[in-house]
Structures are given as structure tokens and as C-alpha cells.
Amino acid sequence: MILGHEFYNLPATEAAPLLCGKLIFHKTDSGEVLSGRITEVECYFGEEDSACHAHRGKTKRNAVLYHEGGVAYVYLCYGIHELLNVVTGDENHPEAVLIRGIEGAPGPGLTTKALRVTRAENGISLITSDTLWIEDDGYKPDIEYLPRVGIDYADKADRERLWRMKSHAHK
Q: Do β-strands 132-135 and 95-102 pair in parallel, antiparallel, or remain unpaired?
């Protein structure tokens, strides 16, 4: 079942662990459908979160974060990697979940490369698009909660939040 408005209207803090284990799909320009099971995510929650791109307010780069949940936020990181985020929550409260990994592609840059997601997908609807979407097939992995990584610039309290989630197959 393709995730709908009800899911994406959840705050990122609630949606993030629920995204672990979901299936993500990308239909490329050539018509090839690439997919993977989400294994790791990271939550970013509003201007109040010093690790969030919207911490200093709305800009041209982060404007998609201010949309109502259910769109993709894709940005260039370190001038090399295009990273995919799922915008969640209410319009005008910037929050999103970074897709950090899928099976076979452990890492956010490897994930977008494996799925061939680029900044061309920035702002695309994950609800109505036929090129990028997420499905729930009922799989429920075990979730491990960890501090986020790569945010040394953030306040100590924000660096220590357990807002990175990794899924593990049931034993």
C-alpha cells in the first residue's frame, strides 16, 4: 500500500521509525523501477533543531521543508552527494526524515545513487507521483535508536538526540 496523507502528516519524530522497513521506489526516465527496503533514517525537526537545514529560517534551498508532509526534499551535500529526505508534518513547520540507507546501499549518498534519485525529484509528491513513492508491505523490523551523525555544527543537545533509527531483521 502506498503511503498517503495520514502517514506524511505525522511529525518527523513519529514518522522516522515507521519509515524503517518500508519499501521505496523510483521510476527512472527510462522507465526502469528501482527499489529498496529502508534500513536507516534520521529525523530533523523544525527551526528549533540546530541540525535542521531550516534552523536559520526559510531559504531557496530549504523551501521544500516548509511544505505539507508528503514531498521529497533532495539536496546536494558536500558538493558530491544528492541526499533524499521525506518531508512530514504540517505546512510551515520544516521537518523531514533523511533516508540514510536501504538494503544493499548503506549510506545516504549510496542510497540515492542506487535509486538514481537526483535533485530533479526535489519537491515531487510522494503521494501522487508515479515516479517516486514509498509502500508499506507490513514488514515490521526491530528498531535501534542512535544519535544522529555528521552534525558537529549542531548544539550538544541536538547532537545527542536519539533521532537516527536503524532497522534490524527480527531474530
A: unpaired
- Asked whether the predicted pLDDT for residue 171 surpasses 70, the reply is no
Centre a 10 Å sphere on the Cβ of residue 128 and count the other Cβ atoms it contains. 10
Phi, psi of 110 (to 5 degrees): -65, -35
Q: Amino acid identity of 76?
A: L
Q: Could you count the other beta carbons within 10 Å of the beta carbon of residue 168?
A: 12
Q: Which amino acid is at 111?
A: T
CA distance 89 to 59: 19
Q: With CA atoms as reference, report the closest residue to 114 among 52, 34, 6.
A: 34
- Residues 26, 131 contacting (CB under 8 angstroms): yes
95 sits in which H/E element:
strand 95-102
Q: State the average pLDDT over residues 3-10.
A: 97
